[in-house]
Amino acid sequence: MNPQIALQLWSIQEACKENFYEALKQVKESGYDGVEFAGYHGKSAAEVRSYLDELGLKVAASHLPYEALQKDLEGTVSFEKGIGNKRLVVPGVSFKTLEEWRGFIDDMERIAKRLAQEGMELYYHNHAHEFTEIPGEDILDYMVNNSRHIHLEVDLYWLACSDHDVLPWLEAHKDRIGLFHMKDMHGSSRESTEVGSGILPMKEYVQVAKQLALPWLVVEQEEFQLYQPLEATAICYRQLKAIVEEVYS
Q1: From start to end of 43-187, where are the E strands?
Q2: Where are the beta strands (DSSP E) in 46-159?
Q3: Angle between helices 45-55 and 73-83 (to 10 degrees)
Q4: CB of 223 within 8 A of CB of 186?
Q5: 183 beta partners
Q6: What positions belong to coiled-coil segments (predicted)?
Q7: How many CB atoms lie within 10 A of CB 30?
Q8: Phi first, then psi: what are they for 208, rounded to 5°?
Q9: E-strand spans in the chain?
Q10: What is the pTM of this model?
Q11: What is the pLDDT of residues 179-237, one digit of tens each?
């Protein structure tokens, strides 16, 4: 079965701030099956759920600050259940020592076990610094080897930016990977760009997603060279959808 395609709403953050409902409506009109949240713009869980139900959008996941899970885990669980989400993603943290990272991983493992009791999953979303912050340490590899319940949402763009050989790295960590961030790289500026318009091997990444039976591919774009965010993310959807249909045919 083909994976569903979601948009990480950080990509269109200004539109979401201006009118959250209308932004979600345009995401649906672009073709997306669902969204990955990056904040709720003051809306209650009931309001968010009503928007999703009316528009026919699903929740792929939500990016949530680590501090929110630390300070009010039960309230966070209640909100996420209210919108129909079962994947909670911490979108990157930074520490200066391996000991600090180990403390974070231990706490994430504790949280992940609690979420599992509610039928929910905890993910960590990488950037590039996890591979360079502690000399000689691949923090994601360290995380996998020092936990059992933390899943990975792999941002393929940032993994490529870290100068890792992406495909072997994915193979080595495949048992923990549950989501991909599909983000392409502009050839000259190395900024993120429309999926399918850059230099990263998106078709190969989708082939890996097929092997891993990933349920969602999450589009994200953070820089925009030629198009405004809503137009750019619509292009991302069309071009990724074409790749998915080719790979899964």
Answers
A1: 58-63, 87-90, 121-125, 150-155, 177-182, 184-185
A2: 58-63, 87-90, 121-125, 150-155
A3: 20
A4: yes
A5: none
A6: none
A7: 19
A8: -65, -40
A9: 4-8, 34-37, 58-63, 87-90, 121-125, 150-155, 177-182, 184-185, 192-193, 216-219
A10: 0.97
A11: 999 999 999 999 999 999 999 999 999 999 999 999 999 999 999 999 999 999 999 99
